[in-house]
Amino acid sequence: MTTPIRVAVTGPAGSIGYSLLFRIASGSMLGPDTPIILQLVEIPRAMQALEGVAMELDDGAFDLLAGIELYDNPNDGFKDANICMLVGGMPRGKGMVRADLVEANGPIFTGQGKAINDHAADDVRVMVVGNPCNTNALIAMHSAPDVPNERFTAMTRLDQNRGKALLAKKAGVSVSDISNLAIFGNHSNTMYPHFFDTKINGKLVPDVISDHKWLEEDFISTVQGRGKAIIEARGASSAASAASAAVDHVRSWFTETPKDDFVSMAVPSTGAYGIEEGLIFSYPVRCDGKGSYEIVENLELNDFAIEKLKVTEAQLKEEREIVKHLLK
Ligand code: NAX
């Protein structure tokens, strides 16, 4: 039997975790031939609930699930992990603004970054879902100096998925007809879904959808505000769709991206598109199927797009400023 891949997940007793773990165990993320050991990392007071989740995982009788390990600390929880999915974190409480959220989560990701540095497998790949995910990934990356920077990513795949679904509905086509939708920037309401290079059955979106006002205003604001709209409708934040996007993110990372398409991931900026190097910025990327990726750098952005990139970059710089004492 192939050696199992060790997948560590934080926040597994939470809402996203409850959908995510079963998708991972079923093989949706790493394929039907890859056995998995789940290393579930919670805070001590959630361990009892986590035991219940582990019982349900047992009851799923997943062929690929070679082990379930429960931990109440990241040092043990990330030991030998090949993939770390950092989902858990401090939720935004009543009256908290984004800056409070950034500040409250910072120390969690310092500790987790250090634990990854010291205990995870040499080939570890990290994806951050817990918000503010770009800045949390930045903190974890800075706390793990022995792990190559490009191994740290944050999730904007849910935004890409939301944008694709919206375009498909508008154009009356299926989601699989949509390609090349890039999400740029922060996973927040400043993100920029870049539709000018997006294709519907090979044709550029602005040539297929004639309502350009809708594209430039409603499309962008709907993708940016979708998280809030879900909270208003459901009374709770997106969970199943976020879990599904997390599965997509990791699967894409280990799958060769078709030459004529790309996927969106927040990764350390190399300076591409004039964005400050080192910020965790969402870009269109192409993955090589072996766990490496390259930023797609050849999109010709117009002034409209460049302006949007500047706004979201500025927000990431502000967030970085708040946590600068945590960055080494
Ligand atoms: P929940 O509050 O349901 O669950 C969070 C879980 O994390 C809890 O079980 C909690 O005990 C655990 N936790 C807290 N601190 C921890 C720590 N230091 N180590 C390990 N576990 C810890 O939140 P849920 O709905 O599951 O959302 C999780 C995170 O995803 C939130 O930060 C949320 O904002 C973020 N999201 C990110 C999205 C994205 O696209 N990047 C979209 C969905 C979601 O909003």
From TrEMBL:
- Give the residues annotated as active site: 187 (proton acceptor)
Q: What class of enzyme is it?
A: oxidoreductase
Q: Which residues bind substrate?
A: 92, 98, 131, 162
Domain of life according to the entry = Bacteria
Cited HAMAP family: Malate_dehydrog_2 (MF_01517)
What PANTHER family does the annotation carry? MALATE DEHYDROGENASE (PTHR23382)
**Stated role:** Catalyzes the reversible oxidation of malate to oxaloacetate.
| Family from the record | Belongs to the LDH/MDH superfamily. MDH type 2 family.
Mind telling me what this protein is named? Malate dehydrogenase
State which gene encodes it.
mdh
